[in-house]
Specification:
17 helices, mainly alpha, Growth Hormone, Chain: A
């Protein structure tokens, strides 16, 4: 029987369509424009990549610190949508402002603000999964979110790409083209958020015992104590920390990496567009397979595939190599993210989804502090970008070993 999304599930998926446009810009046009600004300031390619990595690390570190606390507050009745809206608004506003900046240092500063708002909004968006669907539908709903997010992000991206690459032919400056590109992305993101904001109701929540913030901190403290005792959740989060670290580092630094290697900008952007297109059917195909094969086995395959991708990056030095890498990433990127999200949602208490997804975000996007910093430091120390990126294979190997352990613990917990 064909899987059909409910009206609320569709509106939840639509936010993935909106925020994925920002993700696409961050991994493509943002670093290219920053390279342009940095080049005008006389910054070398190695330092440019390092600064971009450090900025990414700072914003993910901020979310890692704020995530659990805000998540605990969001679990209070009627608070989740409010905090989600504020975070999303900061991201959208920051995206608009970025187009008007010509200083590389100011660009990095506002980028950190916008990326932090975006990442924070995803904590509460992911936590909404327990409210918008049922446990037996989570794998499919989560997969549809990523699948439609990938293909949907191509629309504003292509429009932005036409404006940026065709700036001379349509008679506008680089600065004006960037203003329009960032504005298109921000409005796409905002408009895709409206249906969810209108329809969402917090189904699972905790009642505030006195002051909301104080009560949230007390609940958060109890959750951390419980988390250590729940070994199947704890070990999964530890595994997730390592393997998703590499995934987000690849997403955040792919274009910057290609630029630093001296590869053609247009070719890089088209290759990453192919990644989005390949990801769309791949996620949907895996969402069908997961009904017959356990999500544990599919996640294992995805981690192993990324391990091979990281090793392959050691030999990357041509445009063709980058295209091959882009296709391989597209095949597994959405699936490993979607199934990890739904897998976690099914093993945690629904009424504490905000708190738990706050911790999940520490181990997810917050973990990429390690990956981006590792690539940046190794790149500067060795002067070899291929060695720097290939070191991510260690993260995937550790993640694979720990995930298999977590899967066994979860199976034992069910029994």
């Amino acid at each position: 029987m064909k899987f059909k999304l409910t009206s609320l599930e569709k509106k939840w998926v639509l936010y993935d369509v909106g925020n994925s446009a920002f993700t696409m810009m961050v991994s493509t046009i943002f670093p290219i424009y920053f390279n342009y600004l940095a080049g005008n300031a006389g910054i070398s390619d190695v330092d440019y990549l390092a600064y971009w990595g450090y900025a990414t690390s700072v914003c993910t570190l901020l979310v890692a610190i704020l995530g659990p606390t805000l998540g605990a507050v969001a679990d209070t009745r009627n608070f989740k949508k409010v905090i989600f809206s504020i975070s999303m608004g900061i991201g959208v506003l920051g995206c608009i402002v970025l187009g008007f900046l010509s200083s590389w240092i100011w660009f990095l500063g506002v980028f950190v603000l916008a990326k932090t708002g975006y990442s924070a909004s995803l904590i509460f968006y992911d936590a909404m999964l327990t409210d918008v669907t049922e446990p037996d539908r989570m794998d499919s709903v989560s997969s549809h979110g990523y699948a439609w997010g990938y293909i949907g992000s191509c629309i504003p991206f292509i429009a932005s790409l036409v404006i940026v690459l065709g700036a001379d032919s349509i008679g506008v400056s680089m600065q004006t083209s960037m203003v329009l590109a960032f504005l298109i992305t921000a409005l796409w993101w905002l408009s895709s958020s409206v249906p969810l904001l209108g329809a969402y109701r917090q189904k699972y929540f905790s009642e505030a015992d006195g002051h909301v913030v104080r009560s949230s901190f007390l609940r958060l403290g109890r959750t951390f104590k419980e988390l250590v005792k729940e070994k199947h959740i704890f070990v999964f989060l530890l595994a997730f920390f390592f393997y998703i670290d590499g995934v987000y580092t690849v997403i955040d630094m792919a274009t910057a990496y290609g630029q630093a290697l001296g590869l053609d900008s247009t070719g890089l952007l088209l290759a990453l567009l192919v990644t989005q297109i390949v990801a769309f059917p791949s996620v949907l195909i895996f969402s069908r397979i997961v009904k017959k094969v356990s999500p544990e086995n599919i996640i294992t395959v995805c981690i192993a595939a990324y391990l091979c991708i990281a090793v392959y990056a050691y030999w990357l030095d041509t445009q063709l190599d980058f295209w091959i890498l882009a296709v391989l990433v597209g095949m597994f990127q959405g699936t490993i993210q979607a199934l990890s999200r739904s897998y976690f949602a099914k093993i945690i208490p629904a009424e504490k989804s905000g708190e738990y997804f706050g911790v999940y975000d520490i181990c997810g996007k917050g973990a990429s502090v390690v990956g981006t910093a590792l690539v940046s430091v190794v790149g500067q120390v060795t002067g070899n970008l291929n060695i720097a990126v290939s070191t991510l294979s260690v993260m995937f190997l550790l993640g694979l070993i720990l995930f298999r352990r977590a899967a066994k613990l979860n199976a034992a917990e069910k029994n």
